[in-house]
Automatic annotation (TrEMBL):
It is found in: Cell membrane. It comes from Rhodanobacter glycinis. Pfam families: Na_H_Exchanger, TrkA_N. Keywords: Antiport, Cell membrane, Ion transport, Membrane, Transmembrane, Transmembrane helix, Transport. This is Sodium:proton antiporter. The chain crosses the membrane at residues 6-24, 31-48, 54-71, 92-112, 118-138, 150-170, 182-207, 269-287, 293-316, 328-349, 361-379. Its main location: membrane. The lineage of its organism: Bacteria, Pseudomonadati, Pseudomonadota, Gammaproteobacteria, Lysobacterales. PANTHER family: NA(+)/H(+) ANTIPORTER 1, NA(+)_H(+) ANTIPORTER 2-RELATED. One of its GO terms (biological process) is proton transmembrane transport. InterPro entries: Cation/H_exchanger_TM, Na+/solute_symporter_sf, NAD(P)-bd_dom_sf, RCK_N. Residues 17-387 form the Cation/H+ exchanger transmembrane domain.
Amino acid sequence: MTIELGLMLTGMLVVGFLSQWLAWRVKLPAILFLLLAGIVLGPVTGLLQPDKMLGDLLFPLVSLAVAVILFEGSLTLRFHELRGIGGAVRGLVSYGAVVALLLLALCVHWIAGVRWEIAWLFGALTCVTGPTVIAPMLRTLRPTERIANTLRWEGIIIDPLGALFAVLIFEAIVSRQEGHTIGVFVVTVLCGALIGTLAALLLGFLLRRQLVPEYLQNYATLAMVLFAFSLSNTLTHESGLLAVTIMGIALGNMRNVHMDDILDFKENLTTLLVSGLFILLAARLPWPLPHGMLWAGIVVFLVAQFAIRPFTAVLATMGSGLNWRERALIAWVAPRGIVAASVSALFALRLGELGLEGAEALVPLVFILIIGTVVLQSATARPLAIWLKVAEPEPRGVLVFGSDAVARAVGQALKEEDVRVMLADDDWDGIRRARMEGLPTFYGNPASPHAERHLDLTGLGRLLAMSTHRERNTLACVHYRQEFGREKVYRLRNLSPDENTERVALADNLLAPPLFDEQMTHARFAELLARGWRIKSTTLSSTFDWPNFIEQYGSDSVLLFGVEEKGTLRVASAKRELEPRPGWTVIVLVPPAGK
């Protein structure tokens, strides 16, 4: 049966969305479901045949998509962040990555029998983890803060560095395969680096001087990335990937260039490209695999999981201050991700065109390693963390969406009771004030793709949506219901019950229970603080219980939170009224003295 091209492409988008949605529901990396979907549509059923469907357009489309993915990944590498990452991460992303590259190359050469060129390329592609696979795994793993920070920063930093390793090795292989001298290889690298740097400088100049209107900045960035890629490839063959990687690193480290909106756009675009690209690439896998390749891939995965990662992780974390339990868990967790899958497929296409023997083995070997590490580590990392006693207990911290006076006052009160608090907002002035008050902060929308990669949720188990933007509160509640659970997501009303329309009230009730009492809104809370009301914490006892507290401070007092003797936080809500008991610490909004 022949399926129309338009229907097939839109069907891939639908399958990609369903794979992403399923990954979100079960809290697993989306790459796993995308690859499995492609394998089912391609080798298993034969419904999707990329080479026949796209013909000569396949390589250019894959090349452009990978260029955008590499640019977006390299855009997140900030050099100033390298100074504060600690010895463990520094070791993992430097000599640890180099040792892993060498050992993986030796392993795949001896076990799978591939040529040295393919072996070195395999090592460069698979020595890295990535934030898109680490982030969802950490949410279910919930390790201690030191482990979570180490694994998260390793993924963020090594992702673009690994891309740079792989591109340089690929350039060397292509130069050798085409009979070029070392001088030609050096010229290729210099041309790619020069084009990437000039493109970054030009785009940075345009953005810094505001010569491009805000609504065209994303368009301009995408056009510049693809133009730099194509121009570099035209001037010196195969230098385009290096150009966009250098362009992303250079642009991401420029001063006075606001990149947050562009980064959000690129992350959303990358999600779309990755969803379609991985299905397309997995559908191209030959089935059955070349003789012996399946078992060779499984053995390579086992050696990488049980020998190479433990050795390099232990080596890289020596003298870091981590104890042996923490180092053991880090040695187990190293899922491979987007860079390995997308770039390996593109390189295999190009090397196959050049007639390099064994190039067809690269993609199956990489995909087996990706699927093996994601499946095994997702299933075993949490039990292993519990057994090693490096798993966080049930998280009791609070993520507060908002940074105005109301959110800061609530965050400060919780912090004083030893409750971990994180204030997240994209209002820089509010975030700056929160930092000056000593509150932990995250600058950005907590429901954005950027937050998926950079917001550390370790120890956080509740959301208080307290921003002044009702729509963003709604989005945050929807996003974190799946993350924390429906019963641990709350919102501070922006409209009183009298102001709500019937439709808005129905939607609000479906999202999250309102904070504090039936009449409390953000505006009312802010007004009370301005009139001198304050948040007071008091530990109740048998001689000074809740009725005594109300008698002393007035019936107008508003109960906000209760902290039980064991440290469990209780949130007061219009839907779940609290009954404070002796031994609890109550956090209450009380009127000024004398009223």
